[in-house]
Design brief:
This protein is an alpha/beta fold. It has 11 helices and 11 strands. The structure holds NADP nicotinamide-adenine-dinucleotide phosphate.
Length: 334
């Protein structure tokens, strides 16, 4: 008899690959997935997974989901959204999942996908970041603040329980099935013919400033593997940083997606971030600019040596796969 895994957010960029990895794991017998929109597991060839429409804000729905499972994987989250809406769903919904899992009899393990953003963008943090660095978050970036708040809620909700708690902190996830990074580029919204024209006339390509902060990327299949491993491993519970091998630059990213990078001093990003932090009424989408003000490169030694996780893709390969799938643009700097 294998284990039963409940997954919140199985239809997202990470969820699809995570459920696929769980499907391929012989130790997993059954999977229950829950998110809000209609979805058919058969479209992905899944055999072990059953999908339930439900909202993590609905405590009863969450209780019904987690009570069926030996392991609960919590992925449901609003990543790109307004500060107000994401806060409403992410904090209350995540707390529901944590508390319901602790209260249910059957689950013995909880796997929560946090983020590098939980550490916050602090110039006094070490580079690279290790798992023992406190997850302080940065209040001026809603996503970072909420990820830190969720980690604090996790500690509070699970304190004194027997639950084995695995926390994954991935960097930006990308690849052909995780295109959010490409979609987030402002010029991705340009009409197709305009984008085509920029290929023929490079001078038309948007100029994007690069303050020189190194970036990490991880492939969706590698994150999915880490999640599936956490569901079944005998490695110790705790936090694990997750990132593909190597670093890339913002210049690599903008070049891959058809814009022109221009190097600017690192202090430019710090100034822009400081101005935004004190400006009133900043649109939530602009809060992501804080990410560029300091390095948040992580050390993944613990994931590799303790969990035994090894990414199959480098950051550069992940970027190239995404770029090929989205724009058929050759990435030459890899
Ligand atoms: N993508 C990244 O680069 C990245 C990096 C580090 C960490 N993470 C973390 O990994 C987790 C998964 O991210 P992702 O990229 O897969 O996000 P995503 O693509 O936006 O998917 C979010 C998932 O959550 C579900 N969901 C949202 N609100 C819900 C609600 N109220 N009730 C039930 N389900 C809900 C969505 O389905 P419905 O909308 O249909 O409900 C979807 O299945 C998140 O915690 C995220 O912060 C992501």
């Amino acid at each position: 008899m294998g284990i039963t895994v409940a997954v919140t957010g199985p239809t997202g960029e990470i969820g699809i690959s995570a459920v696929t990895a769980l499907e391929n794991d012989p130790a997993v017998e059954q999977i229950w997935g829950m998110a809000r929109r209609p979805f058919d597991p058969a479209d992905h060839g899944w055999k072990k997974a059953t999908y339930i429409e439900g909202d993590i804000l609905d405590r009863e729905a969450v209780e019904k989901l987690v009570e069926k499972a030996d392991v609960v994987v919590h992925l449901a989250f609003i990543v790109m959204g307004s500060r107000a809406e994401s806060e409403r769903i992410n904090l209350a919904g995540t707390r529901n999942v944590f508390e319901a899992t602790v209260a249910a009899e059957r689950p013995s393990r909880l796997v929560y996908t946090s983020s590098v953003a939980a550490y916050g963008y602090h110039s006094d943090n070490p580079v690279p970041l290790t798992e023992d660095v406190p997850t302080r978050g940065s209040k001026e970036h809603y996503y970072s603040a909420q990820k830190a708040a969720c980690e604090a809620a996790l500690v509070e909700a699970t304190e004194g329980s027997d639950l084995e708690v695995y926390v994954l902190r991935p960097c930006i996830v990308a690849g052909p099935k995780a295109p959010a990074l490409a979609d987030a580029m402002p010029w991705a919204q340009l009409p197709g013919p305009v984008r085509e024209a920029t290929k023929l006339v490079p001078a038309l390509k948007p100029l994007i400033p690069d303050p020189g902060i190194p970036l990490q990327l991880v492939h969706h299949d590698d994150v999915a593997l880490a999640i599936a491993m956490c569901a079944t491993t005998t490695a110790p519970a705790g936090a694990y940083n997750i990132a593909g091998t190597g670093e890339i630059s913002l210049s690599d990213v903008v070049t891959a997606f058809g814009a022109r990078p221009v190097r600017v001093p690192a202090v430019t990003a710090k100034i822009a971030s400081a101005v935004l932090a004190y400006a009133p009424f900043v649109p939530s989408a602009l809060e992501w600019l804080h990410v560029g003000r300091t390095s948040v490169v992580m050390d993944t030694t613990r994931a590799e040596t303790v969990l035994g996780w090894h990414p199959a893709h480098t950051a550069a390969e992940t970027l190239a796969e995404l770029a090929d799938s989205r724009y058929s643009t050759a990435v030459t700097r890899l």
